[in-house]
Amino acid sequence: MTSRAHASAGFTLLELTIALTLLALLSAVLFGSLRLAGRSTDSGEAKAEVSSSMRLAQDFLRTNLEAQHPLRMRKMVEWPLLFRGAKNELRYASDLPPRVAGGGIWYYRLAVRSEDARSPLTLERVVPDLAADALPEFANADRSVLADGIVELTLGYFGRDPDSLPAVAPTWRDHWDDGQQLPLLIRIDVKPKVGPIGVDLFDRQARGASAFFDEAINAAGAPVDPDERP
């Protein structure tokens, strides 16, 4: 009786070992689940932050590009427009709200600073000297960061080749070199490190000199279809 009661009052070494092993396995599973949940939360927050940055950048660029002006360099041959469009960089003249640096017309450059570790999408601006002998540079420009962590910036321009007849249908291209007219449409796509694979940041008709664009579209005799992209 005594030995049987003593045996039922505790655990054997084998039972204790099995219990500790099961506890360790349960702890490992629980820790893994918590770690996965933490990673999912961090990833979701990062994607939400990227999406929010893209929305703000989109709203600002839409407003800024719709307010662009067809300014010309008065001392350069043929008075070229202050507009240059490359595959990964855009330069244009537009309004600045009066609450920022007193407002006025500024010359902007939209580009990704790949040499910066943050890889930011930046918008630089300078006050253009229209009486200068060369296009403005951005050596001492004011800079605003629209979004961080941008892998790639891709731009597209919808319009006609220089000296084309009005009946010629406009097409999409990855650069704009015509110094005498602005493109009819501008498309901006960005590829962030985190978040969507590609973000359509802007795809609207450029509103600077809107009367000029309306005349050009009407003269072509055909609607401008933004979906006819290469």
Structure summary:
The chain is α+β, with helices and mostly antiparallel strands and 230 residues long.
Residue share in helices?
A: 25-40%
Integer average pLDDT: 75
Structural category is alpha+beta
Radius of gyration over C-alpha positions, nearest whole angstrom: 30 Å
Strand content: 25-35%
Oligomeric composition of the shown chains: single chain
Estimate nothing, just give the exact number of structural domains: 1
Number of helices: 3
Shape assignment: elongated
In angstroms, what separates the terminal alpha carbons?
93 Å
Chain-wise SSE layout:
Layout: H1 2-8, H2 13-66, E1 83-85, E2 89-96, E3 104-112, E4 121-126, E5 142-147, E6 150-159, E7 171-173, E8 185-192, E9 199-205, H3 210-220
Antiparallel strand pairs: 1-2, 2-3, 3-4, 4-5, 6-7, 6-8, 8-9
Care to describe what's here?
The protein has 230 residues and is of the alpha+beta class. It has one domain. Helix content is 31%, strand content 26%. The chain has three helices and nine strands, in the order H-H-E-E-E-E-E-E-E-E-E-H. It has helices at 2-8, 13-66, 210-220; strands at residues 83-85, 89-96, 104-112, 121-126, 142-147, 150-159, 171-173, 185-192, 199-205. The strands form two sheets. It has a five-stranded antiparallel beta sheet with strand order 1-2-3-4-5, with helices on one face. A hairpin with a 3-residue loop joins strand 1 and strand 2.
